[in-house]
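Repro:
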Amino acid sequence: MAPSEIMEREHHHIETVLLALRQTADAMLQGQRPDTELLRAAVEFLRIYGDRLHHLKEETLLFPRLAHRGIPDQANPIDSFRHDHEQERALVRVLDDSLDRFVRDQPGSGDALAHALDDVCATFERHLVKDKATLIPMAEQVLTDADKHELETKFAWADRAVGMEVVARCVEFSTNLTAEKTATQ
């Protein structure tokens, strides 16, 4: 599978989880209590699948290869993607902290959790749009067939480094969210 297809598949799983988080935030605004187990699993998914796997592939494998092909590494657009990743990491930490405070039933924690969910969703959604509109087309344009083959091999290595069972668990979480949504419609 081509690197761009791998990235797009990973984007799909991330988008599925973001949709569930967006729906949770909307439900909270209507006075519903969120499923804290779902939120815990979503935080774990974003940390492992979104960051340790997807961002790792971009930052340590794709970005250097793009730089090798003449895309500036320390200026837009690559630096902008790195900045987004740092912002996403920080927001996932805020979400996790907000969830902890909500579970402990601290005053104002419901509003803080809803706000954290909104921030995470908005930031990740903007980043994914940028990935699709800029990063993937740029990679398709400048990477050679040899680059793509090498990245495909290294992406598979990254999956194994995270743990195939961990990756499968994350994909299953996303897939189950899609199945649950379909079942309730």
